[in-house]
Design goal:
The protein is an alpha+beta fold. Helices cover 56% and strands 12% of the residues. It is built from 8 helices and 4 strands. A 4-stranded antiparallel β-sheet has the order 2-3-1-4.
């Protein structure tokens, strides 16, 4: 019963850590799986600090229950060294690795997108050839709210570059904007903003 309770606490810590990082996990999934918008990402960003606190508190309690188990069993008793105890320790450290991995997820999202073979926002600004006709080519920088990490920037990049008339896209999580080079004869700024909004982000109105 005690082991089951401890494992439940550890499992809760992992689940909460995963939930806290959904703000960045969801946009990355949308890129990899080709799924549509994830407007709830910013909602999880607001809850992230609180969820991480709860997750690490649960993890700390799991450590307490695991490493004080020897004291409960008594020195030299078989319950302190039987295989199930070592398995619990293994699960604890695997769970800890999972919690830390998801807690730090926003820090390496951009590199993860690159590793998965997608064009992240770090280097996605090379214009597509326009056969020498640039009479309708324009550039616009749109302020965007709702980006919570580099994964969101990559999400916008990958989606907007598929639009007819868009030559290049460079979204920046750090700057909170997206730079778009487009053909004004084929697509309007309003259409670009609508595409951003449809992804679950908030483009500037003006």
């Amino acid at each position: 019963m005690e082991a089951s309770r401890r494992n439940s606490i550890l499992g809760s810590a992992v689940v909460i850590a995963v939930t806290s990082s959904l703000c960045c996990v969801l946009p990355v999934l949308s890129i990899v799986l080709g799924i549509g918008a994830f407007g709830a990402a910013s909602f999880f960003e607001e809850l992230r600090p609180y969820l991480l606190v709860v997750s690490f508190l649960a993890l700390g309690f799991a450590f307490y229950k695991t490493y004080f188990r020897r004291d409960e069993c008594g020195e030299g008793e078989t319950c302190a060294t039987k295989p199930i105890g070592r398995i619990n320790h293994l699960f604890l450290w695997i769970g800890t690795l999972a919690v830390v991995t998801f807690a730090l997820f926003p820090l390496y999202t951009g590199n993860l997108v690159l590793a998965l073979g997608t064009n992240a926002s770090v280097d996605n600004s090379t214009p597509i050839a326009t056969s020498g006709d640039v009479s309708g080519q324009k550039t616009v920088v749109i302020r965007v709210e709702g980006m919570t990490c580099d994964g969101c920037a990559s999400h916008i990049d990958e989606s907007l570059k598929k639009l007819v008339g868009v030559h290049s896209v460079k979204a920046s999580y750090k700057n909170g904007d997206v730079k778009v080079v487009y053909d004004s004869r084929k697509i309007s700024v309003d259409s670009i903003k609508k595409a951003i909004k449809d992804l679950g982000y908030k483009p500037e109105k003006e």
